[in-house]
Design brief:
The chain has about 300 residues and is of the alpha/beta class. It folds into two domains: about 50 residues, no CATH class; about 230 residues, TIM Barrel (Alpha-Beta Barrel), CATH 3.20.20. About 50% of the residues lie in helices and about 15% in strands. It has 13 helices and eight strands. It has an eight-stranded parallel beta sheet with strand order 3-2-1-8-7-6-5-4. Strand 2, helix 6 and strand 3 form a beta-alpha-beta unit. The longest helix has 20 residues. The structure holds dihydroflavine-adenine dinucleotide. The site of dihydroflavine-adenine dinucleotide (FDA) has 23 residues, from strand 4 and strand 7. Dihydroflavine-adenine dinucleotide binds next to strand 4 and strand 7.
Length: about 300
């Protein structure tokens, strides 16, 4: 992995760097680009705006690596409030929710995380929508897949996320291509050692295409999460080759990234879902977005320089 990218991802855990980033001019503008806002109503408004453009949403209440039970409970309450508001405002057909198990208490106790995720799944079903479990760093892969399998006994529509950067992913995919299985395929936003992840970006892309082929050949509902123009072109060709009709798969992109491409795909009749994070705990999410793109990292370097 590129050393600057590794440095930025490592900085997610540093309090000193956190304060520097928050104090750097421009941090508000950058955050506004990637994050819909801090409140539930900001998130609902973002869904309304996207819906007006023919786009769908998946909403992520920010806050990961929760280490207290009370904090995990606040996460659950935030999702319940959000689902309630989406339903009340007639928007639950346009938006589902993305949940990080570390925010529902995975680091504290797996059973707590399952019970909390369960309550969110139950509320989502009542509102006529679905839940996708985000995939976090490689330490959480095994537990996340275990929890996913457990939740799917009751809520078969719970979506999985697989990261093509991880060497294990093609193996994990095997159990996730059946009818009704919803799988978001992404490259992976977290740093991982070479034995666990591909080092070369080209290998990550090749693995992405291999996984996409298997998802398209299967009976499930693939959700292709990428902004990569080359991959989007390859996916279009593979979708045609497998004879997949529009509506049997979807594209997913992040809030604030390539919005013109989001609208172009929707204009061509594709289902496009935008990942919309909201909430006060936006710092870790912002750093992952900065790490993905050299043009964004200038901001991070300015923040570091201001501390030296
Ligand atoms: P790549 O990084 O090669 O970018 C291709 C092009 O897209 C760039 O050249 C640039 O034009 C544009 N671009 C990409 N990122 C940008 C950014 N931050 N700012 C500006 N332009 C940018 N990861 C994970 O580990 N677990 C998860 O659960 C998810 N969930 C998820 C949901 C959705 C809907 C998306 C789109 C992505 C994720 N990810 C994720 C993140 C994913 O793993 C990956 O880190 C990013 O999507 C960037 O990879 P790309 O495939 O876009 O390609």
């Amino acid at each position: 992995m590129n050393p600057l990218r590794s440095l930025i991802l490592a900085a997610a855990g540093s309090d000193v760097i956190r304060r520097a980033v928050l104090a750097t001019p421009g941090s508000k503008g950058l955050t506004e680009r990637f994050v819909a806002g801090e409140s539930c109503s900001d998130a609902v408004e973002a869904v309304r705006r996207l819906a007006a453009d023919g786009l769908h949403a998946t909403l992520d209440y920010l806050g990961e690596d929760v280490l207290e039970k009370a904090q995990a409970e606040r996460t659950v309450q935030a999702y319940l409030r959000l689902l309630d508001q989406l339903h009340a405002q007639g928007l639950s057909g346009r938006a589902e929710v993305s949940v990080k198990l570390s925010a529902t208490g995975l680091a504290l106790d797996e059973k707590l995380a399952v019970d909390n995720a369960w309550r969110i799944c139950a509320a989502a079903e009542q509102c006529g929508t679905t839940v996708t479990l985000d995939m976090e760093d490689h330490h959480a892969t095994e537990a996340t897949l275990r929890v996913l399998a457990e939740l799917r006994h009751t809520w078969p529509s719970v979506g999985a996320v697989l990261q093509s950067a991880l060497r294990r992913t093609e193996h994990d995919l095997a159990g996730l291509t059946g009818a009704g299985s919803r799988v978001r395929l992404c490259k992976g936003a977290y740093a991982a050692p070479a034995g666990i992840a591909f080092e070369d970006r080209h290998d990550v892309d090749l693995a992405y295409v291999r996984c996409a082929n298997r998802l398209l050949a299967g009976e499930g509902y693939p959700m292709f999460a990428t902004h990569d123009p080359r991959l989007i072109a390859v996916l279009g060709e593979r979708i045609r080759w497998y004879g997949r009709a529009a509506g049997t798969y979807e594209y997913q992109l992040l809030h604030g990234v390539r919005p013109e491409e989001q609208r172009r795909l929707a204009g061509e009749g594709e289902t496009v879902r935008v990942y919309v994070p909201y909430g006060e705990q936006w710092y870790g999410y912002l750093l992952r977005r900065l790490a993905e793109r050299p043009a964004n990292t200038a901001f991070f370097l300015r923040a570091l320089a201001s501390r030296s």
